[in-house]
C-alpha cells in the first residue's frame, strides 16, 4: 500500500532539531530518546531518521543499511538500559487499530516494572 508521510509530525520535528529531546543514543540512521509520557521506569523510543510512517513501511522500503542500523540501535539501547535481566517489551503501534499517535515509525522499549499481559480486551 502507498504510505503518505507527514513531515510535520512531532518526531520529524525532533529529527530536524526543532524541538528538544532527551537523547539516549544517536547513530547514522537512528535516534533513541526518552518518551515524554513514560509508562514504565524505562521508556525509550527508537526511531529511524528516514521518513517511514510505520514498521511495515520501513520493512518494505528502507535500505539494508537502515534496517541493520535500526535493529542494532534497538539492541544497543536495551543493553545500555540494562533491560535484559528483568525483562522488557518492544511495541511498534501502527495505524488506527494500533492507536499510533505519532505517524513516524517508533519502537517503544518498556522495562523496570511488571508490564502485565500483552493485550487487554476493550
Ligand atoms: P504511539 O501511540 O505509539 O504513537 O506513541 C507515541 C509516543 O510518543 C507516546 O508514548 C508519547 C510520545 N511523545 C509524543 N510527543 C512526544 C514528544 O514531543 N517528545 C517525546 N519524547 N515523546 C513524545
Short description:
The chain is of the alpha+beta class. The protein contains 3 helices and 5 strands, in the order H-E-E-E-H-H-E-E.
What does this structure look like?
It is a single chain. The protein has 122 residues and is an alpha+beta fold. It has a single domain, classed as HIT-like (HIT family, subunit A, 2-Layer Sandwich). 25% of the residues lie in helices and 20% in strands. The protein contains three helices and five strands, in the order αβββααββ. A five-stranded antiparallel β-sheet has the order 1-2-3-5-4, covered by helices on one side. Strand 2 and strand 3 form a beta hairpin. The radius of gyration is 14 Å and the shape is globular. Bound molecules: 2'-deoxyguanosine-5'-monophosphate. 2'-deoxyguanosine-5'-monophosphate (DGP) binds next to strand 2.
List keywords for this structure.
25% helix, five-stranded antiparallel beta sheet, 122 residues, HIT family, subunit A, 5 strands, 3 helices, alpha+beta
Report the span from N to C terminus. Answer: 28 Å
Assembly level: single chain
State the strand order across the main sheet: 1-2-3-5-4
Number of domains: 1
The CATH architecture classification is 2-Layer Sandwich
* Rg of Cα set: 14 Å
Q: What structural category characterises the helix and strand content?
A: alpha+beta
User: Main beta sheet: strand number and arrangement?
Assistant: 5 strands, antiparallel
The total of beta strands comes to 5
Number of helices: 3
Which molecules are bound in this entry? 2'-deoxyguanosine-5'-monophosphate
SS strand fraction: 15-25%
Average pLDDT: 97
Give the proportion of residues in helices. Answer: 25-40%
Amino acid at each position: 500500500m502507498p504510505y503518505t508521510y507527514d513531515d510535520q509530525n512531532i518526531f520529524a520535528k525532533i529529527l530536524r532539531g526543532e524541538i528538544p529531546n532527551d537523547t539516549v543514543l544517536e547513530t547514522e540512521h537512528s535516534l533513541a530518546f526518552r518518551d515524554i509520557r513514560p509508562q514504565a521506569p524505562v521508556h525509550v523510543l527508537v526511531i529511524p531518521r528516514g521518513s517511514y510512517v510505520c514498521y511495515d513501511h520501513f520493512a518494505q522500503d528502507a535500505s539494508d543499511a537502515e534496517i541493520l542500523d535500526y535493529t542494532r540501535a534497538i539492541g544497543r539501547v536495551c543493553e545500555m538500559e540494562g533491560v535484559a535481566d528483568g525483562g522488557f517489551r518492544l511495541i511498534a503501534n501502527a495505524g488506527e487499530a494500533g492507536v499510533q499517535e505519532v505517524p513516524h515509525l517508533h519502537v517503544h522499549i518498556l522495562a523496570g516494572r511488571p508490564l502485565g499481559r500483552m493485550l487487554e480486551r476493550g
